[in-house]
Design goal:
The protein is of the alpha+beta class. It folds into two domains: 69 residues; 97 residues, Alpha-Beta Plaits, CATH 3.30.70. Helices cover 58% and strands 25% of the residues. The protein has three helices and five strands, in the order ααβββαββ. Strands 1, 2, 3, 4 and 5 form a five-stranded antiparallel sheet that branches.
Length: 175
């Protein structure tokens, strides 16, 4: 025998179905939101990566032009003295940037190899600690392949805030 559902039973069934449909919809919306959030995060990561790559490519053009200028220096056979002068001028520019005084420069022998030339200089500079630290940081981050082989710090004179720094620098020029 079929019995008709009462009004109360119909209300419970429709309410249950309504709650079930709302929960399915809400669950679907949450999953969609999670997917969109993950997609937005992925887009942000890719954008940051592309910006970094763009900066590297931009620097790469500068490095390529720098490389070409050094290559022409090496090929011009003015060789050791030109390379020494080039490294000295670069060091002089760095020192001027950080208000340091170059006291003494001593060129060391140039090592000429088949693929590259290694130029070394011993430079004595005077300045405050912060400026010397900035110079060393700039040398390390320079795209010019400058390497600090040795570093000695001493106080310039008793009671003085200035430091005397003796650096031995080396630079590779690729042919």
């Amino acid at each position: 025998m079929k019995r008709a559902l009462t009004k109360r039973e119909k209300l419970i069934i429709y309410t249950t179905l309504g709650i079930f449909l709302v929960s399915l919809t809400f669950s679907g919306l949450l999953q969609g939101y999670a997917k969109l959030s993950a997609l937005n995060q992925d887009i942000a990561n890719k954008t940051a990566l592309l910006r970094r790559h763009f900066q590297l490519v931009k620097k790469g053009g500068d490095i390529r032009s720098l490389y070409e200028s050094y290559r022409s220096i090496l090929e011009s056979e003015g060789s050791a003295q030109e390379l020494d002068t080039h490294l000295f001028n670069e060091m002089k520019d760095f020192a001027a940037t950080f208000n340091l005084t170059i006291e003494r420069v001593k060129p060391l022998p140039v090592e000429l190899k088949k693929e590259y030339a290694q130029v070394s200089l011993e430079v004595e500079i005077v300045g405050d600690f912060r400026s010397i630290f900035q110079l060393i940081n700039e040398l390390e981050n320079s795209p010019s392949f400058i390497k600090v082989l040795s570093l000695r710090l001493s106080q310039q004179s008793a009671g003085s805030q200035l430091l005397r720094c003796r650096l031995t620098l080396s630079r590779l020029f690729f042919s």
